[in-house]
Amino acid sequence: MAVVELKKVAKVFASQAGRLTVLVDIDLEVADGEFLCVVGPSGCGKSTLLNLIAGFERPSSGEIVVNGQPVTGPSPSRFVIFQEPALFPWLNVYQNVVFGLRMAGVDPSEQQDKAHALLKAVHLSKFAQAWVTEISGGMKQRVAIARALAMDPDILLMDEPFAALDAQTRDMLHEVLEEVYQQTSKTIVFVTHNVREAVRLGSRVILMSGQEGRIIEQFPVHLPRNRYLEDVEVVTIASRIRDKLRQEVLRSSGEEGEHAG
Ligand SMILES: Nc1ncnc2c1ncn2[C@@H]1O[C@H](COP(=O)(O)OP(=O)(O)OP(=O)(O)O)[C@@H](O)[C@H]1O
Ligand SMILES: [Mg+2]
């Protein structure tokens, strides 16, 4: 069953420079429990695509349907995790994780049970009482993941969530996300610049064009889980995708046009 359906979706922004056509003719289905990764040149519309599914932006034409319902705005069932985890600095780790549950009026003992289980899942049990200003970037991103999961969303939308982290921390976050994915079977749409990361995590990778605002190619990844960035199969598939991506980057940077961003 497709959880997310984009039907002939287009997005045009009206900017000072004029009309900017970012996405055109996007037909995409994301299946229940699928881990979809999105790659493409900078400025090609990856974040826009995610924001449309999140309901932060409305399509200029076409339709977005999630679980059979048209998307008309944001919903806690579609949770977005950004590159910079937007945690509440005046709350500690535990309080950040339970924030949404508190707002939703969830029973305090249930809040506590959920938070403890989630902090354990992201390996932060020892830091429950730490202030978020005292923890590292990777730890912050783990808090953001736990906070998202606390709301039990159907779909996790992740926009380059690990791009600001060093390689070791990123490896660890891959493990955490992999465990979460295997345990919860959430539907995940994950935007990244890192093609190997996309192949390590994704069940499918889509490549977006830098020029036309379209999905130009799809790559199913049938490798068994758990994978590693160094796996020969991961490297092989990633280098195929990277070649295509490089062509797209060259094509779009050679153009002074609207998608050169
Ligand atoms: N709210 C907006 N108003 C006007 N233009 C916008 C808006 N949001 C995005 N754009 C433009 O749409 C294009 C696509 O932006 P988007 O952020 O989706 O790209 P991206 O693929 O996520 O890029 P990156 O890889 O650099 O994050 C860019 O040219 C950007 O300037
Ligand atoms: Mg982006």
Beta-strand residue fraction: 25-35%
Shape: globular
Quickly give the structural class. alpha/beta
For the termini, the CA-CA separation is 35 Å
Biggest sheet character: 6 strands, mixed
Helix content percent band:
25-40%
Mean pLDDT: 93
* Total domain modules: 2
Radius of gyration: 19 Å
Oligomer: single chain
CATH architecture of the largest domain, please? 3-Layer(aba) Sandwich
Largest sheet, spatial ordering of strands: 6-7-8-3-9-10
CATH topology of the largest domain: Rossmann fold
The CATH superfamily of the largest domain turns out to be P-loop containing nucleotide triphosphate hydrolases
> Which CATH class of the largest domain applies here?
Alpha Beta
Count of β-strands? 10
Uncertain runs are 257-261
Unique bound compounds = adenosine-5'-triphosphate, magnesium ion
List the helices and strands and how they pair.
Elements: E1 2-15, E2 18-31, E3 35-39, H1 46-54, E4 61-66, E5 69-70, E6 78-81, H2 93-103, H3 108-121, H4 137-150, E7 155-159, H5 167-184, E8 187-191, H6 195-201, E9 204-208, E10 215-220, H7 232-253
Parallel strand pairs: 3-8, 3-9, 6-7, 7-8
Antiparallel strand pairs: 1-2, 1-4, 4-5, 9-10
Helix pairs in contact: 2-3, 2-4, 3-4, 4-5, 6-7
The structure holds adenosine-5'-triphosphate and magnesium ion.
In short:
This protein has 261 residues and is of the alpha/beta class. Helices cover 36% and strands 25% of the residues.
How would you describe this structure to a colleague?
By secondary structure, the protein is α/β, with parallel strands linked by helices. It has 2 domains: 2-77 and 153-260, 3-Layer(aba) Sandwich (Rossmann fold), CATH 3.40.50; 87-152, no CATH class. 36% of the residues lie in helices and 25% in strands. It is built from 7 helices and 10 strands. The chain has a 6-stranded mixed sheet, sandwiched between helices. Strands 2-1-4-5 form a 4-stranded antiparallel sheet, with helices on one face. A hairpin with a 2-residue loop joins strand 4 and strand 5. Helix 6 (195-201) crosses helix 7 (232-253). It starts with a strand and ends in an 8-residue tail after the last helix. Mean pLDDT is 93; it is low at 257-261.
